[in-house]
């Protein structure tokens, strides 16, 4: 056994509100934590180890973070992102586990064969953090769902509105019922892009924003953000919620999840459903809905365009409160990039999707670190998401038996987001210029240092991740 000792004056252990001194022993052969002892050990005792890491004073040792909503787009749209660049961005922000969405790769992950192709491609090019995969539900693929589950997908995403790519069509109630029937002997997780056009007279503008018809927005200024915002009303999220709740009641053994909730006006209905005994519904929101607001978005600033849209300040405050109150379960990036050419033009033409992988923890800590406390911020990007995808105990916490994924975090460091902070492929991001507090300095994956901010991209240890 090759033994590593991590000695940290400040380590955030499970169940603790604040960091405490701890000595953590790692078996490097398996990459797992084998012992955690309170306090720091004297130098003599530390000599018996093959490797000793002393966390610098003032820096906090955290578990590796998790992001369960990322679009890596490989194979098929590798110009948009890729396994290598996306996972490099992830480790630069302390994310050691991410779950890849079933679109916008080609093939999409809607068949067991599509999953096989994706896993093979990821293994071929290598990944810089551990990654897992979501499957997708589209019309006609109900027969593929149980086989995909058998091959390790963490659940299934579907759209209730056009997705933006032809190979991933949205589902109607009938398709959904077939999918749930196929899954009914499992406890599978079904994820919803929860916008549903209640009234057919509305234009069907798809998820990632390419309008098939300009509909009611045609007379307004497409350069103005408010035109786009008006085209994706909150009511669409409320209509979707109504349908999802119907399914949650009909299939209590399945688990249902709303991805990227944007409309705070949906929260009372979620609260009520839970009060009425619905136990199989979870909700996530994204960094961009918590950290950005419509009032600040300049004309043609399409790097802010995503679906559902970033809404106003009042909405943002209500979402922040819901995260603090525990009504929103956790927070993800929905990192969904494209090539810069597709972001050109006005708000109605440009592709929808926000890029920010790697910035999430600093964004969330800046916004909620003081009010929520460091341990809760870690929980929203750690244990809570681990539990959702069935890897609790292995990921997201500093715990004996867990993978030795660590983050060294400087809670006091202030920085401005510049191009140097963007490690993903296409450097288009609404966060450029933002002032943040709290920086991930180092990331360890299975006990191995994979990211050190002082060394930058050239110093990163690549391709040490696994498929989970
Ligand atoms: Zn997404």
TrEMBL record:
One of its GO terms (biological process) is purine nucleobase catabolic process. It catalyses: (S)-allantoin + H2O = allantoate + H(+). One of its GO terms (molecular function) is zinc ion binding. InterPro entries: Allantoinase, Amidohydro-rel, DHOase/Allantoinase_Hydrolase, DNase_TatD-rel_CS, Metal-dep_hydrolase_composite, Metal_Hydrolase. PROSITE patterns: TATD_1. GO terms for cellular component: cytoplasm. It comes from Kwoniella heveanensis BCC8398. The keyword Metal-binding applies. Its cofactor is Zn(2+). Residues 215-226 have a biased composition (Polar residues). Keywords: Hydrolase, Metal-binding, Zinc. Homotetramer. Residues 203-214 have a biased composition (Basic and acidic residues). It is an enzyme of class 3 (hydrolase). Residues 203-226 are annotated as: Disordered. Its EC number is 3.5.2.5. This is allantoinase. Belongs to the metallo-dependent hydrolases superfamily. Allantoinase family.
């Amino acid at each position: 056994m090759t033994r590593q000792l991590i000695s940290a004056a400040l380590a955030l252990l499970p169940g603790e509100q604040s960091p405490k001194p701890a000595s953590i022993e790692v078996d490097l052969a398996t990459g797992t934590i084998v012992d955690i002892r309170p306090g720091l050990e004297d130098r003599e005792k530390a000599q018996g180890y093959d490797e000793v890491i002393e966390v610098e004073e003032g820096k906090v040792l955290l578990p590796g973070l998790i992001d369960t909503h990322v679009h890596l787009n490989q194979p098929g749209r590798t110009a948009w992102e890729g396994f290598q660049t996306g996972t490099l961005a992830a480790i630069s922000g302390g994310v050691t586990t991410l779950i890849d969405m079933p679109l916008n790769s080609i093939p999409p992950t809607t068949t067991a064969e599509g999953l096989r192709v994706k896993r093979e491609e990821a293994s071929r090019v290598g990944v810089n953090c551990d990654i897992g995969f979501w499957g997708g539900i589209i019309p006609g693929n109900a027969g593929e769902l149980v086989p995909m589950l058998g091959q390790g997908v963490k659940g299934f995403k579907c759209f209730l509105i056009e997705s933006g790519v032809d190979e991933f069509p949205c589902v109607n109630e009938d398709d959904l019922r077939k999918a749930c029937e196929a899954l009914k002997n499992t406890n599978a997780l079904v994820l919803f892009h929860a916008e549903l056009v209640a009234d057919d007279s509305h234009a069907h503008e798809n998820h990632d924003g390419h309008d098939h018809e300009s509909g009611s927005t045609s007379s307004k200024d497409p350069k103005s953000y408010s035109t786009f915002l008006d085209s994706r009303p909150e009511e669409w999220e409320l209509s979707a919620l109504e349908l999802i709740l119907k399914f949650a009641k009909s299939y209590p053994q399945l688990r249902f999840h709303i991805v990227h909730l944007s409309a705070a006006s949906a929260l009372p209905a979620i609260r009520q459903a839970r009060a009425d005994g619905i136990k199989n519904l979870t909700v996530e929101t994204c960094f961009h809905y918590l950290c950005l607001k419509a009032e600040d978005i300049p004309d043609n600033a399409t790097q802010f365009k995503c679906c559902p849209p970033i809404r106003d300040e009042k909405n943002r405050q209500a979402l922040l409160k819901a995260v603090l109150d525990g009504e929103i379960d956790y927070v993800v990036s929905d990192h969904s990039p494209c090539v810069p050419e597709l972001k050109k033009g006005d708000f109605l033409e440009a592709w929808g999707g926000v890029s920010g992988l790697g910035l999430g923890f600093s964004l969330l800590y800046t916004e909620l670190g003081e009010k929520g406390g460091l341990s809760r911020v870690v929980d929203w990007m750690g244990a809570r998401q681990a539990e959702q995808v069935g890897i609790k105990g292995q990921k997201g916490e500093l715990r004996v038996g867990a993978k030795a994924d660590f983050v060294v975090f400087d809670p006091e460091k202030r920085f401005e987001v510049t191009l140097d902070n963007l490690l993903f492929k296409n450097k288009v991001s609404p966060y450029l210029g933002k002032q943040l507090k709290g920086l991930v300095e180092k990331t360890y994956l299975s006990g191995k240092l994979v990211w050190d901010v002082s060394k930058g991209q050239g110093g990163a240890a690549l391709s040490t991740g696994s498929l989970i």
